[in-house]
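Dear H.,

Thanks for agreeing to be a second pair of eyes. The structure we're designing against is below in token form, covering all 157 positions.
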């Protein structure tokens, strides 16, 4: 019995994510999701734009940047550390690139110096980013279902 209720709960959570994703699309904003690390650090990831991806690829090619690390850091829109009473809010890479040269290498260096100061912290951030990407892939797949709204309303009944 608990398996059926867990499946229904996961499905409803996915539907909420899909509806939020569709709202973001309609508003022209990237989808975001918040994750808690070590019980207190909060990292919020945003969906990367095509321009963000292009800048990451260019930095990988021209500046020998670790693509995965740069992508993880570029996707962070907010980082909160209540233990240090610090909140960092980040603009998209494509927006920062308008006023800063080599923005990706600057971003990677800043993150390594100020947030991901140990391999443990970086690995934790990378793991939740991987979860975010998988979640986003599931959302897009579910949102692409032409019967999404029909199935959602049937589940509510």
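And this is the sequence the design step returned. I haven't edited it by hand at all.
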């Amino acid at each position: 019995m608990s398996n059926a209720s867990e499946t229904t709960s996961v499905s409803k959570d996915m539907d909420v994510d899909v509806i939020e994703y569709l709202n973001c699309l309609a508003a022209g904003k990237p989808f975001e999701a918040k994750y808690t690390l070590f019980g207190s650090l909060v990292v919020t990831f945003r969906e990367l734009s095509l321009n963000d991806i292009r800048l990451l690829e260019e930095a990988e090619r021209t500046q020998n940047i670790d693509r995965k690390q740069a992508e993880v850091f570029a996707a962070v829109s907010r980082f909160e550390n209540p233990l240090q009473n610090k909140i960092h809010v980040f603009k998209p890479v494509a927006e920062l690139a308008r006023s800063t040269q080599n923005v990706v290498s600057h971003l990677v260096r800043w993150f390594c110096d100020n947030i991901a100061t140990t391999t443990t912290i970086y690995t934790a951030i990378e793991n939740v980013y991987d979860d975010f990407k998988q979640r986003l892939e599931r959302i897009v797949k579910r949102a692409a279902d032409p019967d999404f709204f029909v199935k959602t309303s049937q589940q509510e009944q």
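Two observations from my side: The CA atoms of residues 36 and 42 lie 4 Å apart. The first helix runs from residue 2 to 27.

Warmly,
E.
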